[in-house]
Amino acid sequence: MNLLEIIILGIVEGLTEYLPVSSTGHLLLTESLLNMSQSKEALDALAVCIQGGAILAVLSLYFPRVKAMAQGVRGKNPAGLKLLVNLILAFLPAAVVGLCCASLIKEYLFNTYTVAYSWIVGGGVILAYCAWRTREGRSIESLTPGKALTVGALQCVAMIPGTSRSLMTMLGGMFVGLSAEAAVEFSFLLGLITLGAATVHDAYKDGALMLESFGWEALAVWTAVSWLSAWLAVKWMVSYLQRHSFSVFGWYRIAIGIVTLVLLSMGLVH
């Protein structure tokens, strides 16, 4: 793998991880377009582990929230402790389903056809929700444990490649009454736990294979590039949603899903 491919994958991961467009789907499509020769097991593990850079981006951008949660653990910030508890509750459904079904999902659903159809369906869901939603929502402090579990249950749907963890948690947050801004923030913070756990799990399980296939230098470059691109993507999205709806992501998902199906029919991707 050359430096250009490393940079491309890092940019794709960073730009798409926290947008509701599916980073996994974009990485699978990019790997296919680049005709990467590494083993599928190594590439699947890589798709999870290079999330580390994106995690660092959100950690730096939302450090005050992280600090508040740390203070809550020490008994100095009740609101921070409440947020941490809600995030843990929202993480639990995905942790349970992931441990039980991860191997089956990777075996049967990690393919470009699944991604393409999930993009289109998810795009339709976004457009339908934007057309239906008319009321303002509440702040992240209003979230109850039951509503946090609801968001976590919806996050499980995102285990289908192409669905997008960010999409399901953002829509889930708005579904339980959060404002768009609060739902986005909760989704980003939940990603710190969910993506962090997945990264640690796959790094422990397949770390040696990734090092053998790619080398530590490539992994370091991927992390740095994904951190920078994720930082830019998160800053842009927060600013964009202050003035616009989610509909642009719906149209984008439908368009890239259709393009991918055309490429599959022509044999240009697999």
How do the helices and strands line up, and which of them pair or pack?
Elements: H1 3-17, H2 23-33, H3 40-49, H4 51-61, H5 63-73, H6 78-108, H7 112-132, H8 145-155, H9 165-175, H10 180-214, H11 216-241, H12 247-265
- Can you count the helices? 12
Give the mean pLDDT: 89
How far is the first residue's CA from the last residue's CA? Answer: 19 Å
> Which series of helices and strands comes N to C?
HHHHHHHHHHHH
Which residues sit in consecutive blocks of at least 5 with pLDDT less than 50?
A: none
Shape: globular
Q: What characterizes the major β-sheet?
A: none
Computed structural class: mainly alpha
Quote the beta fraction.
Answer: under 5%
Number of strands: 0
Instruction: Bin the helical content.
Output: over 70%
What is the CA-atom radius of gyration, in angstroms?
18 Å
